[in-house]
User: What shape does this take?
Amino acid sequence: MQKLRKQLDELESFIPQLEVRNDAISASTVGWQIEHDLLVISSVIEGVKRSDPTKFKWRFKPLKYVILWRGVIPRGKVGAPKIVTPGEITQETLRAHVALCRERVEELENVEAGNYFTHPFFGDLKKKETFRFLYVHSEHHLKIIREMLAN
Assistant: This one.
């Protein structure tokens, strides 16, 4: 959980560069990358909080284990679902969303271990795997942002 908090700090530090675009790295802006990641964090945690642990279904998903174990999401293979596609982005909306995500991360810490969310490719992920997924997903977007700003 501490790793996710640090990632939120880093995302917040990039907000002043929200308009930066580097088409060699990504077709989106730094702000889009930040907001997309925040939308994922927020919606995943809400899903975990609302879940009914008795409905959890474990399935072996090799892709899940490879990505969560390696900690790397391949780039450009899958587009963001509409629910986590950013709309209008400003420094103010990003700062407010970072604050909301910080609250939600704290809420996730207090959720029962059996709660879960259903990922479209990985299937059901219990709380512990959810933390890992959020870390790997955030790191994926942070790497993109870092590269966009380095060039």
About this structure: The helical segments are 2-13, 30-50, 62-70, 91-109, 127-150. The chain has a mean pLDDT of 94. The chain has five helices and two strands. The beta strands are 116-119, 123-126.
